[in-house]
Design goal:
The complex is a heterodimer of chains A (89) and B (107). Chain A has helices at residues 3-25, 29-54, 58-83. By secondary structure, chain A is mostly helical. Chain B is an all-alpha fold and 107 residues long. Chain B has one domain (2-91). The radius of gyration of chain B is 18 Å and the shape is elongated. Classes of the chains: A mainly alpha (89), B mainly alpha (107).
Chain lengths: 89, 107
Amino acid sequence: MEWMDYVVFSLMGLGILFTVIRLFIGPKLSDRVVSLDTFNMIVIGVIVVLASVFESNLYLDIAMVYAILAFLETVVFARYLEGKKDGNR
Amino acid sequence: MVIASYVFMIIGGLFFLLGGLGVLRMPDTFNRIQAGTKATTLGAFSILIGVALANPVWDWISKIIIIIVFIIISNPIGSSAIAKATYNSKNIPDNLVQDDLKERGDK
């Protein structure tokens, strides 16, 4: 059943590809912030599946710290976006 | 147990794929916020349950429970913060049917 890992990684990689495309072509700044939020969640999933593949416990700690940093990044970007009244490029 | 864990992981990967596809294909910003956040919350939940079923040891399950609780708390807060900031920075689409925040008067 090792090949199922490749299926899961391909699905998550396609999701990461779509969010990165939206990150580059996003017309407004808020679209880029939304795509970064989704990108961070998918990367947390990739790290957790890597923990199961390598059978190492430490990757879960890395995923925990990454989740905290991703939440802080989202909130800080939202505060920055709220301060820009003019238009969001 | 192994088959159940892989089923949960495949469901989570499908939800991540649908979240990325929704962020790419939805027409305006609020639809993108909704698609990107709700789908990835359920996807992360399902993938974490799959990994916990693949390794049913207590020191894996405790960390996975901590990550699940943190994601359930933090992801809706982040999406709400992005939505409020998007509304306040005048990035509102033209085809809104109802605008309750405008009727309430305070931004």
